Amino acid sequence: MFLAIRELMHAKVRYILIGLIMVLIACLIFIISGLAQGLSADNASAIQHLNADYLLIDPDAELDMTTSFIPQEEKEDIAQWNGVEEASSLSIRMMNVSVNDSDQNADVALFVTEAGGMLMPPLSEGRAINDEHEVVVDDSLKQEGVEIGDTLGFGENSERTIVGFVENQRYSHTSVVFAHGGQAENINAIAIQGQEANIEALQDSFDVVTKEEALQGIPSYSQEQGSLNMMIMFLYVIAAFVLAAFFYVITLQKRDQFGVLKALGARTAYLVKNLISQVVLISILCIIIAVGLTLGVAALLPADMPFQLTAGGMLQTALLILLVSIIGAIISLVQVVKIDPIEAIEGAGK
């Protein structure tokens, strides 16, 4: 570490340029990761946050809950199934609603389930619904000027009053409106809580999927996340190649110095340890700067932009960047190991 720090202090400009490139690459990875997580939440947070272990979906729907149709009476039978602790119905409709019977419209996803059931999310404001004429809505609708007490028109003869708000409930890039289920003839899915071993027999009649598996049935979810994850993966690969090239060239330039150190008795393990320490030190400093810049960029983004950064996600990304940096420097280690002190000294003397 002593040798690594002394070299960093001696060649400040060289390592500042390398650090600048690392910061820019790390920033890009953090920002695209934030967009990927934000779009994921904007597309499916209502499903991700469902208070359920499994969802039962019509096998013919191929995981698309909006095209799944299950008779309402099936839910009552499932609730009595051995191993099922609780069951709730779920119906999803993409709709355009009018606000306060005016020309103001909003696209929403209507989630119909039982009032007081396990699928009703905790309220952030207001009170729970009591009947079919009341709804609670995602607080992103506040950006449309919607308040508690306003009414939403679902067609010509159906109007419901907003009595509360919930947080982080989005589906297919629209705000979710939760309403009481009533007695519709068909529902889209049955959400259950129970142990996997006891519900395997249900797979004969339904697609029994976890919430993560159900996300694959949301239109465009897989394609959207796949594209962004591919970009992130390529950024990691690019970062590894760029850093490998930089450290390889720098190591070649220091070949004579390494040869002299070896001739003076420095062991190869000592030189390798210092090179790795140098890479880790530079990477950690650059990641810290990149995190600060990314948080600054996030603060400047519009409120309605789907961008989400979590402490756990950033830590995971930071560790991957650090790992990629070390992998990129491994090629340079080969040069350090192969250096012959006599050849290096002779080369330096020419």
Please characterize this protein's 3D structure.
With 350 residues, the chain is an alpha+beta fold. The chain contains ten helices and 13 strands. Helix 2 packs across helix 8 (268-300) and helix 7 (255-263) packs across helix 10 (341-349). The longest helix has 37 residues, at 12-48. The chain is elongated and about 90 Å long.
Radius of gyration: 29 Å
What is the residue-mean pLDDT, rounded to a whole number? Answer: 85
Based on helices, strands and strand pairing, what is the structural class?
alpha+beta
Tell me the series of helices and strands, N- to C-terminal: HHEEHEEEEEEEEEEHEHHHHHH
Number of strands: 13
Q: Strand order across the biggest sheet?
A: 3-4-10-6-8-7
Helix content: 40-55%
β-strand percent reads 15-25%
Number of helical elements: 10
Low-confidence stretches: none
Multimerization state: single chain
Shape, per Cα inertia axes: elongated
In short:
The protein is of the alpha+beta class and 350 residues long. The chain has ten helices and 13 strands.
List keywords for this structure.
two-stranded antiparallel sheet, six-stranded mixed β-barrel, alpha+beta, 350 residues, elongated
